[in-house]
């Protein structure tokens, strides 16, 4: 039973902390893998769990918003007339956990080791989703109300690119009107230093197949006379970047703003240690566009990456086969000024133009992608949130950007006219798309304090 602490939301959170921690673990145990059709029922189960938790927190008008994909949970508390309305975003779907053999403990059995909770989804994004919801419960349990109006939008398909997000917003746009989106998705650079992100890169996806024959063949009987598709694939992929490591696709950089002196001054103010960054991922050298800093490459420049290449025999031992096809998957991270569909079309045109004689190519574009996003540096919400984080951490807050993609940011801006500020307590070292994903117990507690305070701070927001 909850302790009867009513003097403040923060006191309530401290008194109920162990119960909340266990509930967070219950959510993490649900294998809500949106990319796998076989786990669609688990994504639905997670949605039902989140909806029930919204009711427990004291929210009303709880709905499942759907447009042919995985569901989104909506709920609201609108009892603060005259105060701003904050739309809280998070997602409860997770990445696939494979390769399973690299996990130290089972991927969906949350395990605490050395102050870290290990499990798929423990960090991305179930931790801060749960924090955002638990702090709503704390306010309503202790004060009977929230200091500002709140609508929650907890999505179930972010990890597959939010394919039905636009359609959901088209159907329910008026219900989702607000003054600001506060995103529980995103991340901080460091576990013990606060930052606020002012932008993120967009994304587009493609995959392609090269075929050189109708069937696999004996490498002795046909090798040397029939083009090997793996050799062709290597040559095609090698054309994607020039000798200076810039993307060599015609038109790729169209619309990209050149980095300014002010941009470089902002980057110089970020406490970034290149050596520690390299060591953290076990790399020995920086790659990419010449004469550009690491942070400039990660935050302000677009990329084209090969995410996977395969074909032919990959089992143990030798098989003397000449395969008939090879495959690759590509993604591009985009910056403001780039249109995802235009970039997809440019990359496809490049691939077709370099397809070698003796091969055919099939290119598949991965949906419409997501545009990049940035918030105006003088947006009033930034100062409000920075002040909360500085108070919680006891040190100055600095501004960052996210090299990855938060599809909601550009879509919410385009469809709802909403600016978004991420306030996630995940950090980039938490392996949240890799085996042994974890979330720090200390970040759980810090996040609770910060989210409890931010609802109060945003009550006076003028937008």
In CATH, the topology of the largest domain is named: Aminopeptidase
Largest sheet: 6 strands, mixed
What Rg, in angstroms, do the CA atoms define? 24 Å
Query: Overall pLDDT, averaged?
Result: 96
CATH uppermost class of the largest domain: Alpha Beta
Q: Rough shape?
A: globular
Helicity, as a percent range: 25-40%
Segments where pLDDT lies below 50 for 5+ residues? Answer: 1-5
Strand order of the largest sheet: 1-2-6-3-7-17
Summing up helix and strand content along with how strands pair, one would put the structural category as: alpha+beta
**Gap from first CA to last CA:** 40 Å
Number of domains: 2
Number of strands: 18
CATH architecture of the largest domain: 3-Layer(aba) Sandwich
Oligomer: single chain
Strand content: 15-25%
Annotation field: number of helices = 14
CATH superfamily of the largest domain: Zn peptidases
Tell me what you see in this structure.
This protein has 463 residues and is α+β, with helices and mostly antiparallel strands. The protein folds into two domains: 9-200 and 372-458, Zn peptidases (Aminopeptidase), CATH 3.40.630.10; 202-256 and 302-365, Alpha-Beta Plaits, CATH 3.30.70. It has helices at 9-15, 17-28, 40-57, 126-143, 165-172, 219-222, 229-238, 261-268, 274-281, 294-299, 340-354, 380-393, 407-416, 441-458; strands at residues 60-65, 72-77, 85-91, 111-113, 116-118, 149-155, 180-183, 195-200, 202-211, 217-218, 303-311, 321-322, 325-334, 360-365, 373-374, 398-402, 420-422, 438-440. The strands form five sheets. The chain has a six-stranded mixed sheet, with helices on both faces. Helix 3 packs parallel to helix 4. The longest helix has 18 residues, at 40-57.
């Amino acid at each position: 039973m909850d302790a009867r602490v009513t003097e403040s939301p923060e006191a309530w959170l401290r008194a109920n902390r162990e119960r909340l921690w266990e509930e967070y673990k219950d959510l993490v145990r649900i294998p809500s893998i949106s990319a796998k059709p076989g786990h669609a029922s688990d994504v639905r189960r997670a949605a039902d769990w989140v909806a029930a938790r919204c009711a427990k927190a004291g929210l009303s008008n709880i709905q499942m918003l759907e447009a042919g994909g995985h569901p989104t949970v909506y709920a609201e508390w609108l009892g603060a007339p005259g105060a701003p309305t904050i739309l809280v975003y998070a997602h409860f779907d997770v990445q696939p956990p494979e390769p399973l053999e690299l996990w130290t403990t089972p991927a969906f059995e949350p395990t605490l080791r050395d102050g870290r909770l290990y499990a798929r989804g423990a960090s991305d994004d179930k931790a801060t989703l749960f924090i955002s919801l638990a702090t709503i419960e704390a306010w309503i349990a202790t004060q009977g109300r929230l200091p500002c109006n709140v609508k929650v939008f907890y999505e179930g398909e972010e990890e597959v690119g939010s394919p039905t997000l636009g359609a959901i917003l088209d159907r329910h746009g008026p219900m989702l009107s607000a003054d600001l989106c506060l995103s529980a998705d995103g991340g901080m650079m460091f576990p013990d230093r606060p930052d606020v992100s002012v932008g993120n890169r967009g994304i587009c996806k493609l995959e392609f197949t090269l075929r050189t024959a109708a069937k696999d063949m004996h490498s002795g009987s046909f090798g040397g006379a029939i083009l090997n598709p793996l050799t062709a694939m290597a040559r095609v992929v090698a054309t994607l970047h020039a000798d200076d490591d810039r993307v060599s696709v015609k038109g790729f950089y169209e619309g990209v703003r050149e980095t300014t002196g002010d941009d470089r001054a902002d980057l110089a103010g970020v406490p970034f240690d290149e050596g520690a960054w390299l060591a953290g991922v076990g790399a020995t050298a920086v790659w990419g566009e010449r004469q550009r800093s690491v942070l400039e490459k990660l935050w302000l420049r677009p990329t084209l990456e090969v995410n996977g290449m395969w074909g032919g025999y990959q089992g143990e031992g030798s098989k003397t086969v000449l395969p008939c096809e090879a495959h690759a998957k590509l993604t591009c991270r985009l910056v403001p000024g780039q249109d995802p569909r235009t970039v997809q079309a440019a990359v496809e045109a490049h691939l077709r133009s370099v397809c070698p004689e003796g091969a055919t190519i099939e290119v598949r574009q991965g949906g419409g992608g997501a545009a990049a996003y940035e918030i105006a540096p003088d947006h009033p919400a930034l100062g409000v949130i920075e002040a909360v984080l500085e108070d919680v951490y006891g040190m100055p807050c600095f501004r960052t950007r996210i090299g990855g993609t938060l599809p909601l940011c550009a879509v919410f801006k385009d469809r709802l006219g909403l600016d978004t500020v991420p306030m996630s307590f995940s950090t980039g070292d938490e392996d949240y798309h890799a085996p042994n994903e974890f979330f720090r117990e200390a970040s759980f507690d810090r996040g609770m304090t910060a989210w409890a305070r931010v609802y109060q701070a945003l009550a006076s927001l003028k937008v």
